[in-house]
Amino acid sequence: MKIEAIFRRRAQVAESVIELNSELVDKLSKISGFFSGNYFDGMETFDPGEGESASTNLSPCLMPGMSGGVIFASRIPGVVSDRATSDDSLGLKIDLERIDFLRFSSVVFPEIVRAFGCYRSAVITDVNLYLDDYEEIVENSRSTTLDVDGRDGVFRFNPVNYFDDILCVRAFALSAAEVAARLRGHCKMVKELDEGVFFLAADRPIFGSESIELDRRVRGFLRL
After folding, report:
1. What is the DSSP string of 34-83?
2. pLDDT reading at 198 higher than 80
3. Which residue would you say has higher pLDDT here, 50 or 95?
4. What are the C-alpha distances in Å from 150 to residues 7, 10, 163, 207, 221?
């Protein structure tokens, strides 16, 4: 069984992508259980790109059972906006026959959040539902002019979630501390993390009706 993890950070105009990438890889390499024991400096492949964005292939560095990389958004002045189109993203595909779901979600995931400086992150186990949501997200974004599942809102809660304080205020009209307070006692793990909130809403992969029910329950706990 394969699942996905997505980590997103807000790109800043003044950042050097080359320096950012170097610092990121250094931080990621120190996370236990993320990079393989065979990793050596320069093993990752950084592509500065010829256009507006750059990328890094992390797959050669990762533990067996994981693959993925980073896409850095354009830093061109006038192009960077307060929307998810200006996010840097780190995406992973995870084979649960080789990677322990609970350990990755509770130990490795929050460390990647810290290293990448995320404003939102999630472990997505119901990939089909995630893809099915896309058209509705686009339609809602058009009708409201909000970045519905990006900088302004959360369309669906997943088994593992992280939101920073800015997103919590925009999406829920609650601070990250208030979100944490409302979820404590209802989730497997809740922790305030780097001016945000990390919570494990399920300790195993969920699909179909379970995914929909989890989203409904979390919204109820937050009184949304």
Report:
1. TB-TT--TT-SEEE--SSS-EEEE-GGGBPTTEEEEEEEPP--TTT--SS
2. yes
3. 95
4. 12, 10, 11, 22, 22
Q: What is the mean pLDDT of the chain?
A: 95
Output the six-digit token pair for 90: 């780190």
Q: Is 64 left (phi over 0), alpha (psi -120 to 50) or beta?
A: beta
Read off the pLDDT band of 81 (50, 70, 90): very high
- What are the residues whose beta carbons fall under 8 Å from the beta carbon of 27, sequence distance 6 or more? 114, 115
Task: Report helix, strand or coil for 1.
Answer: coil
How distant is the alpha carbon of residue 132 from its chain centre? 18
Query: Is 42's pLDDT higher than 80?
Result: no
**DSSP H or E segment with residue 2:** strand 2-10
C-alpha 18/C-alpha 20 separation (Å) is 5
pLDDT of residue 49 exceeding 90, the answer is no
Cβ burial of 1 (10 Å; 0-12, 13-18, 19+) is: exposed
pTM recorded for the entire structure: 0.95
For residues 119 and 36, is the Cβ–Cβ distance under 8 A? no
What's the whole-number mean pLDDT along residues 193-214?
98
Distance CA 139, CA 145 (A): 10
pLDDT greater than 90 at residue 193:
yes
Is the alpha carbon torsion for 40, 30, 36, 43 positive or negative? negative
**Per-residue pLDDT, 51:** 62
**All domains of the chain in start order, with CATH:** 1-118 (3.30.530), 126-224 (no CATH)
